[in-house]
UniProtKB/TrEMBL annotation, chain A:
Coiled coil: none annotated. It comes from Megasphaera paucivorans. Belongs to the nitrite and sulfite reductase 4Fe-4S domain family. GO terms for biological process: sulfate assimilation. GO terms for molecular function: 4 iron, 4 sulfur cluster binding; heme binding; metal ion binding; sulfite reductase (ferredoxin) activity; sulfite reductase activity. Residues 157-186, 188-217 form the 4Fe-4S ferredoxin-type domain. GO terms for cellular component: sulfite reductase complex (NADPH). The keyword Cytoplasm does not apply. This is Dissimilatory sulfite reductase (Desulfoviridin), alpha and beta subunits. It comes from the Bacteria.
TrEMBL record, chain B:
Belongs to the sulfur carrier protein TusA family. It comes from the Bacteria. Residues 6-75 form the UPF0033 domain. It comes from Megasphaera paucivorans. One of its GO terms (molecular function) is transferase activity. SUPFAM superfamilies: SirA-like. CDD domains: SirA_YedF_YeeD. Signal peptide: none annotated. Keywords: Transferase. This is TusA-related sulfurtransferase. InterPro entries: TusA-like, TusA-like_sf.
Length: 287, 79
């Protein structure tokens, strides 16, 4: 088998195994969603060409181990017929991960699945000097661990207090995880320190008088890295209030990475080398 | 504030906290006031939202400064 182009195979989601002439085949998922029809196809292919099992990857993907090189074309064809595409590896925009978001989860503040689809459509598989990961979590509970990603997106609520509706019961004070709210019941006054707010929406969700309202938004983190070296994605931008602006921010960020990163250099390292403020200034131009 | 009933849920943990509260409220008439004593941490973070979702209205919250809070809840006050 001398005619195998490993780079091309890697691009198409074939991970070379320790065992000679075998690949673990990575499948495409977006936001961790797989249909029953796709599962059936994956089951059949793993039984026919693999060893009858799959591996769930750390980033919500599925791999079918033990695909022989001689079966690559047949496997691709049978998967495609069942609505399953190959995943990506290498220096590209990787699988976009997401929690179930506001459509399913009572805590969800944004539609993470729709956003994951949009991001995949716009940026999925784009080539870069190094891999780039996007993860989307629906709320500050952060089940999807946004800050582990090169670019993390977290749903939030930008709270707004309406004095006329407030009954000064004081419930928002203990439910706020960051102690951003204080209420004086005697004088009927409330103080809110936005700098402390984590945009979780607890005030909004608990308020019995609907005095706390709010608009959902996106908290973006940049430069997360969880490999041999570890960096937690940083919050250098204000919360973003609409999807259109969010996509502009993502586009500027990806273009910045494409033009500044060295070969094999993860985003956190690029930012440390080139300067976080350089990226921040570029993003602020479009905010 | 005067309550019609009182319940202490400081000796149970989630989800029993809300189950006990729900049963107590079911046995009360609409508009009656229930006094609830609950722990700081998870109970005070989550119970107010669950009460709202069930249509009961919190009318007052006091920090007892001993690791517990006292809520006054009006049954069906949001319905």
């Amino acid at each position: 088998m001398t005619d195998i182009n490993f780079a091309e195979l890697k691009k198409g989601g074939f991970m070379k195994q320790k065992q000679k002439d075998y690949f673990s085949m990575r499948l495409k998922t977006i936001g961790g969603q797989v249909t029953a029809e796709q599962l059936e196809t994956i089951q059949l292919v793993s039984q026919k060409y693999g060893k009858g099992y799959i591996h769930l990857t750390s980033r919500q993907g599925i791999e079918i181990p033990f695909i022989g090189t001689e079966n690559i074309d047949a496997v691709k064809r049978e998967l495609a017929a069942g609505g399953v595409q190959n995943g990506v590896c290498g220096a590209r925009l990787r699988t976009i991960t997401a929690c179930q978001g506001s459509v399913i989860c009572p805590s969800g503040l944004i539609d993470t699945q729709q956003l994951a689809e949009d991001c995949d459509h716009r940026y999925g598989g784009r080539e870069f000097p190094c891999k780039f990961k996007i993860g989307i979590t629906g709320c500050p509970n952060n089940c999807l661990k946004a800050e582990e990603n090169d670019l993390g997106i977290k749903g939030g609520i930008i709270p707004q207090w309406n004095a006329e509706k407030c009954i000064f019961c004081g419930v928002c004070v203990p439910v706020c995880p960051t102690k951003a709210i204080t209420v004086d019941k005697d004088t009927h006054t409330l103080a809110f320190i936005e700098e402390k707010c984590c945009y979780c929406g607890a005030c909004f969700k608990s308020c019995p008088a609907s005095a706390w309202g709010g608009q959902s938004g996106y908290v973006v983190s940049l430069g997360g890295l969880y490999g041999k070296q570890i960096a937690i994605g940083k919050h250098i931008l204000p919360i973003i209030s609409n999807a259109e602006t969010l996509h502009k921010v993502i586009t500027v960020t990806l273009d910045f990475f494409a033009s500044h990163a060295k070969q094999g250099e993860r985003f956190a390292k690029t930012l440390d080398r080139v300067g976080w403020n350089t990226l921040k200034a570029a993003i602020e131009e479009i905010l | 504030m005067k309550a019609d009933n009182i319940i202490d849920i400081t000796n149970v943990v989630c989800p029993v906290t809300f189950v006990k509260l729900k049963i107590e409220l079911e046995n009360m008439k609409t508009g009656k006031i229930l006094e609830v004593i609950l722990n700081e941490g998870e109970p005070i973070a989550n119970i107010p939202r669950s009460l709202k979702d069930e249509g009961h209205k919190i009318i007052d919250v006091t920090n007892n400064d001993n690791g517990t809070y006292t809520l006054f809840v009006k049954k069906d006050g949001l319905v």
